[in-house]
Amino acid sequence: MQSIFHRVSVREFTDDPVKSVDVEWLLRAAMAAPSACNQQPWEFYVVRDQEMIQALSKCSPYSSPAAGAPLVIVPCYRTEGLEAPDYPLIDLSASVENILLQADSLGYGAVWIGIAPNETRMTNVSEVLKLPETLKPFCLIPVGVPAKTHEQINRFDRSRIHEI
Questions:
Q1: pTM (2 decimals)?
Q2: For the structural domain made of 2-148, what CATH number should be given?
């Protein structure tokens, strides 16, 4: 639970690699997320190829932090065979938060770079990864050892709580 109050968005990384065993833990955390009707619409692309990472870093006006990462995870969602077809973005959101928290707990930094539902960004990522038509990219998650440390900002705001 400490990662909830420690995690920050990390956009600058060292050259240190992300260990394969740690990538598996990131993906185990992702797949432990709740999912509507337990449909688990997720598929994950783990990108270590630097040429492809550079291409991904140009897919959105906000994706440049990917360029300096040793690893980018691209969560995608299936569009066919879903029991709750309106919920993949919600399912993937829970999954991504689990990746971010697990990354922090393993000593890595990561940042959530939104791709869906922007069609242009989704097309750009799909083209880079050569995704099949039935798979849509949700976001980019650059992961690595943070180049510098940041303190988490306290976002608690009692005025947003309404007790009835």
A1: 0.95
A2: 3.40.109.10
